[in-house]
């Protein structure tokens, strides 16, 4: 039973492990994207309040509560948050690189090749009408 946890036994087990690895990579990508958007928002706030008078009042959301502070108090906190998020992004990028190497080693070990979905579209005679999600191409009823 210990061999099962370490080495996949059959093709289905290999496929399941591979699928979960790809899922992890997708999750890391989406988290990085989400955090990069937060860094962008923090940068916008920093650029907006930096030139203002440090004694001016401003409001900051802390844990769902709107708190009144001065720009002098808020600006360093927002900058620290931005730096913290950037550190997390750097760590996630490192984890992503490790996962990519791990999955490429796994692909090489089990000789996994990905089939492109574009090949299926080409087999249909080049018709891509069915893949246009919510977009109407050409006049309606032109095939009648």
TrEMBL record:
CDD domains: Prefoldin_2. The keyword rRNA-binding does not apply. Residues 119-130 have a biased composition (Basic and acidic residues). It holds the Pfam family Prefoldin_2. InterPro entries: PFD2 (IPR027235), PFD_beta-like (IPR002777), Prefoldin (IPR009053). One of its GO terms (molecular function) is unfolded protein binding. Transmembrane segments: none annotated. Residues 119-144 are annotated as: Disordered. The keyword Coiled coil applies. One of its GO terms (cellular component) is prefoldin complex. Residues 82-109 form a coiled coil. PANTHER family: PREFOLDIN SUBUNIT 2. Belongs to the prefoldin subunit beta family. GO terms for biological process: protein folding; response to cold. Keywords: Chaperone, Coiled coil. This is Prefoldin subunit 2.
């Amino acid at each position: 039973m210990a061999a099962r946890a370490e080495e996949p036994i059959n093709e289905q087990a290999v496929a399941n492990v591979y699928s979960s690895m790809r899922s992890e990579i997708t999750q890391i990508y989406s988290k990085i994207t989400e955090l990069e958007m937060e860094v962008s928002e923090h940068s916008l706030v920093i650029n907006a309040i930096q030139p203002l008078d440090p004694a001016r009042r401003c409001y900051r959301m802390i844990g769902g509560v709107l708190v009144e502070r001065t720009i002098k108090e808020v600006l360093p906190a927002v900058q620290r948050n931005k730096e913290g998020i950037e550190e997390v992004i750097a760590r996630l990028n490192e984890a992503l690189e490790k996962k990519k190497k791990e999955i490429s080693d796994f692909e090489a070990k089990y000789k996994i090749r990905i089939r492109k979905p574009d090949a299926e579209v080409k087999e249909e005679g080049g018709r891509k009408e069915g893949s246009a999600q919510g977009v109407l191409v050409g006049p309606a009823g032109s095939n009648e």
